[in-house]
Design goal:
Elements lengths: L2 H40 L5 H17 L15 H5 L3 E2 L22 E5 L2 E2 L13 E5 H7 L1 H8 L7 H9 L2 E7 L9 E7 L6 E3 L1 E7 L4 E10 L6 E2 L2 E6 L4 E9 L5 E10 L4 E10 L2 E10 L5 E10 L4 E10 L5 E10 L4 E10 L7 E10 L5 E10 L5 E10 L2 H9 L4 H17 L5 H18 L5
Parallel strand pairs: 1-7, 2-6, 5-8, 6-9, 7-10, 8-11, 9-12, 10-13, 11-13, 12-14, 13-15, 14-16, 15-17, 16-18, 17-19, 18-20, 19-21, 20-22
Antiparallel strand pairs: 2-3, 4-5
Helix pairs in contact: 1-2, 2-6, 4-5, 7-8, 8-9
């Protein structure tokens, strides 16, 4: 064997070694940068319990680092953009005026919480008009007046989630919603996250805490909007707790800026006979991950999750769900759909776990994907882990193109090709949209779907 052949045989190993060295260098760099941010925050006036909680979270992040695609739960989410840049924290000098025209839903009244460039905006928020028994506070204020409730949530941290750990270590803002037992907050509470100019290479580490006591009711509409093409990072974490018989409805609209990375993470706990209905629309951002982990911890509890992804032009969307059925007689239903145009990617990872003893569990999940262009890609991975023997569990997934026969039928009735495609796409996503209870919110989402199709005008190639 000649020397050149030997060199060729060694080169893959050398490349692998070089790649690992580069990865380790990048990891050391961003961990050091976030440790510096943490050290600056730690110098503030913090209660002892929060200082300890943040310190433990920072140590977890330094151990775990950023998730990589080597982890099964992150197989389809590429966070290379986060590894390349240590995003600076949101600060008051970055809270420049942000256009909120698309953040408010016409006809939808009720309280609202506004975050502009990663920080609470008191001037455009409206926390008035809440019924007795409903507390809605910015997190900074809640740390002073409801520290017991905030501490209870933060002390129950997940030990193996690096992004959640970093959020806890660096959390700067957010809100607390507490609804007392037997109280109904009937008017939807709108939460707007608006990002505009001046937020390039910065991060919003927001923590939202929602606690519903027994038989309480509340509805949240959470909207993320971004303008421009600058790169920024939204890393919101939501902790949702529903007591016995409580009911929580949430609608999440993610329409981030073209250069944004969004890694939303929600943890939900449902006690006996509690119910959580969640609907999401993923439509804007460069890399978007919508992660929902639900613990069905009380008998008779029910979780209904639904969502739609509309992607094009290199966008990548991941929906990750985990339904953990811990007790008997729990129910869960998942419906997620994707429509992808040229160059877009989506992934659905839906895991249902039925623990030993969780008999009479009824769980279903369905993921359907529609490709408008042959360059689009959809990955789907529904999973069932069942350790009980008297359950009803099902899952299904499809990836396909628009029905040619249906297109031909519509066009034969005088409908032009673009309109025909729009009709079929809107019908495909319609099952998700119809799950939104509030008319004004449902109309807003339907208009966004229609507008997306008009912008695309895509044809299968």
């Amino acid at each position: 064997m000649n020397l050149n052949a030997k060199a060729m045989l060694r080169s893959p190993r050398r490349r692998k070694d070089n790649d690992q060295a580069m990865q380790q260098t990048a990891e050391a760099r961003y961990i050091s940068a976030y440790r510096s941010q943490f050290d600056r925050l730690a110098g503030g006036d913090l209660p002892d319990w929060l200082r300890a909680c943040r310190g433990a979270a920072m140590e977890r992040f330094e151990t775990l680092g950023l998730p990589t695609r080597k982890l099964e739960d992150w197989k389809y989410t590429n966070l290379a953009a986060l590894a390349r840049t240590a995003f600076a924290p949101a600060e008051p000098d970055t809270a420049a005026p942000v256009d909120l025209d698309d953040g408010f839903i016409p006809g939808l009244s009720g309280p609202r919480v506004v975050f502009a460039n990663g920080l609470f905006d008191p001037k455009r928020s409206d926390l008035a008009g809440l019924p007795d028994g409903v507390t809605l506070l910015p997190l900074r204020e809640a740390l002073n007046t409801r520290a017991d409730l905030v501490q209870q949530i933060l002390d129950a941290e997940s030990p193996d989630n690096g992004l959640r750990a970093l959020n806890t270590a660096l959390l700067a803002d957010g809100f607390l919603l507490h609804v007392a037992a037997n109280v109904a907050a009937d008017a939807p509470i709108t939460v707007v996250h608006a990002t505009g100019d001046g937020f390039a290479e910065r991060a919003a580490q927001l923590r939202h805490i929602v606690v519903l006591d027994d038989n309480a009711r509340a509805s949240l509409v959470e909207i993320f909007i971004g303008t421009g093409t600058e790169s920024y990072w939204a890393n919101p974490v939501r902790d949702l707790r529903c007591g016995a018989g409580a009911c929580l409805e949430t609608v999440t609209i993610i329409d981030e800026g073209a250069g944004a990375v969004h890694t939303g993470h929600s943890e939900v706990r449902l006690d006996r006979e509690a119910r959580s209905d969640q609907v999401a629309l993923l439509i804007g951002g460069a890399t978007v991950r919508h992660e929902l982990r639900v613990a069905v911890a009380g008998e008779g509890a029910q979780a209904n999750l639904a969502g739609a992804c509309l992607g094009a032009n290199g966008q990548s969307f991941t929906v990750f769900t985990e339904l953990d059925h811990q007790v008997p007689h729990g129910r869960s239903n998942q419906v997620f759909r994707s429509v992808l145009d040229a160059g877009a990617h989506s992934a659905y990872q839906g895991r249902v776990v039925v623990r030993k003893g969780a008999q009479k569990t009824d769980a279903s999940q369905a993921n359907h994907n529609l490709l408008l262009d042959r360059s689009a890609e959809a990955d789907t991975k529904p999973e069932l882990e069942i350790y009980a023997d008297d359950v009803k569990c099902a899952h299904g997934a499809t990836v396909g193109e628009l029905d040619g026969d249906m297109l031909f039928y519509l066009q034969s009735r005088g409908i032009d090709p673009d309109t025909a495609r729009s009709i079929l796409v809107e019908a495909f996503v319609g099952e998700v949209v119809e799950k939104i209870a509030h008319t004004h919110v449902r109309d807003k989402v339907a208009d966004m779907v229609s507008g997306w199709m008009k912008r695309q005008g895509a044809a299968i190639t």
